[in-house]
Design goal:
The protein has helices at residues 3-8, 18-78, 102-109, and strands at residues 94-96, 118-119, 138-144, 156-159, 171-184, 191-201. It has 202 residues and is an alpha+beta fold.
């Protein structure tokens, strides 16, 4: 007896509930897919934010590094041959690498942010509308002995800059410096360093 005949005879068809069960299963599957997609989107957002912080920190460290190199450049450009004296206290912003101070060691090795070194004095990178850093980048400068990098003492280089900013000065002994820049990203937890060797002839 089909459903139409059953209804004509006043007999109610037996409800099996399969449609309700299928609907619930489909709803659960859709919900799981939505939760998975949401978790994936959150994870991707965190990854993108982390990558952005790393790029910011590396760029900040490079900025501090260039500021340290510029400090050396301007010193020797305007000091007329006066040696930039290094001392353990970094009186002139330069430390001797032979007697590495706790300040320099922490600056170069600590994973978290430290406020040692010379603060970058250019644009305030912590107050930018977009891409602001958590801390203003910093740098330190260390004087390297020539023996430490495999060069004999007294090695001379090209001529010093003369007053006309051309190579009209006298040839001088090479002095090597290690410049280290340090910066955070948008948060204090992301810290990056950049390092270079800067050579001057005096």
């Amino acid at each position: 007896m089909n459903t139409l005949m059953m209804l004509s005879a006043g007999i109610k068809p037996r409800q099996k509930g399969s449609a309700l069960l299928i609907s619930l299963l489909v709803l659960i599957a859709i919900s799981l897919m939505g939760v998975t997609a949401m978790n994936s989107a959150i994870l991707q957002e965190k990854m993108a934010s982390g990558a952005r912080n790393v790029i910011q920190a590396q760029s900040g460290a490079e900025t501090a590094l260039r500021a340290g190199e510029q400090y050396l450049w301007w010193w020797y450009k305007s000091a007329n041959g006066t040696q930039l004296v290094s001392d353990p206290n970094g009186t002139f912003g330069v430390y001797p690498v032979e007697t590495e101070s706790a300040q320099v060691y922490d600056f170069r090795t600590t994973r978290t942010w430290v406020s040692d070194g010379v603060e970058y004095s250019g644009t305030d990178l912590t107050s930018q509308t977009y891409g602001a850093l958590a801390q203003q980048p910093r740098f330190i400068i260390e004087e390297l002995p020539q023996e430490a990098i495999g060069i004999s003492t007294g090695t001379t280089g090209v001529r010093n800059l003369g007053y006309d900013n051309q190579s009209s000065g006298s040839a001088g002994e090479l002095t090597y410096y290690r410049v280290t820049g340090r910066s955070t990203g948008g948060v204090d937890g992301v810290v990056r360093l950049a390092e270079s060797t800067f050579t001057v002839s005096r």
